């Protein structure tokens, strides 16, 4: 047990000093070093216990290989953001959002809309990278908190993802626990619906409390919308790349090709509708086809840099490209390397076995599962691992207590899926920070749905509410 805890304690200490020394910039290198140094500590313990380096190296390579699908999606999302900013897709969503949405219910609307979209397409990542980016832009127009907006987007995205039969995690949890998909979704409603309702109320309260500051903001919004009109050709047609991407996701096309096709369609749309902007962005001496090809190609790999007279618009719309995701990929690879070593050395299993030895009640078992899923997300930086590993480890314990597999599959989702974006170095947390260009970790405190849902699951366990037993027949 001491061997198992030393690398975790090392990581916690190094991450603490990383944040103290570098603040919100700690994910841009310092946290990666903390993860790799902690991995080194685990490797030394493994060598001491008789493991061979080549075995641990294979585990690291295998752990990293699990992230390659996510890495490809991250790169595709970077390109998508770049071309959708160039084509006017995201600016058009921002423009119409500023016209339609009332600041008083803005946060709640962001949560609800993202929830509906994610439920339709089964992807919290795609929702955050498209609709979420637009809501962050609208928040800038209203001078509202980007951290709260990100919390609302993530809350809605994970609520919808969790209840969608198209979602990978929603299919994975019942497969690991041994329950049936649609029974699993229906059973999750008992914990998920109260959690999202509480979250919506909190977002409404926050929106109403900020509404008093919006009275004198109409002039500022008018300036922003005018700048968008001057910079882009604003048209409903600009939203067709979004509609096409959502259609592809709904048709269950894998995320990477769907997102990259969306990026390429955005590039075509930019050529058709934004020739004036392309001419402004082209380097001196370039014109015609050469200028268009250069600007569009650059948007795919390095994003765009708007140079209007409005600094807010410039900051908001100057980003994207594959290069913008490289730091996120670096963080994910470092975190997965650390988690892979701990799993290979049996450190995580040792900790879980110790927890199970002290569990005396159903509530304690569910609380332990939630804690293990969160801890796995923390250590392995992968939500799939946070579902599969605890699911395998706890399956027999739930059966021994005569609990239906639905209880385990629901708990895995109430914790493994939900808590992943709350950890900045987890693949999900890193993605959310990168896709929405968040400047700090403050958003974590406003992911109300993600914070509330695990506690609802634990509460049900201790009071015995809606805990399904195995049939005695």
TrEMBL record:
Key words of the record: Antiport, Cell membrane, Membrane, Transmembrane, Transmembrane helix, Transport
Residue ranges occupied by any Na+/H+ antiporter NhaC-like C-terminal domain in the UniProt entry: 156-465
Subcellular location: Cell membrane
InterPro entries xrefs: Na/H_antiport_NhaC, Na/H_Antiport_NhaC-like_C, NhaC_Na-H+_Antiporter
Domain of life: Bacteria
Parts of the chain that traverse the membrane: 33-51, 63-84, 104-121, 133-159, 187-209, 230-249, 255-273, 285-304, 324-342, 362-381, 443-463
Protein's membrane topology: Multi-pass membrane protein
Family, per entry: Belongs to the NhaC Na(+)/H(+) (TC 2.A.35) antiporter family.
Matching NCBIfam families: antiport_nhaC
Entries under PANTHER family matching the protein: MALATE-2H(+)/NA(+)-LACTATE ANTIPORTER, MALATE-2H(+)_NA(+)-LACTATE ANTIPORTER
Name of the protein this chain belongs to: Transporter, NhaC family
Natural source organism: Thalassotalea agarivorans (Thalassomonas agarivorans)
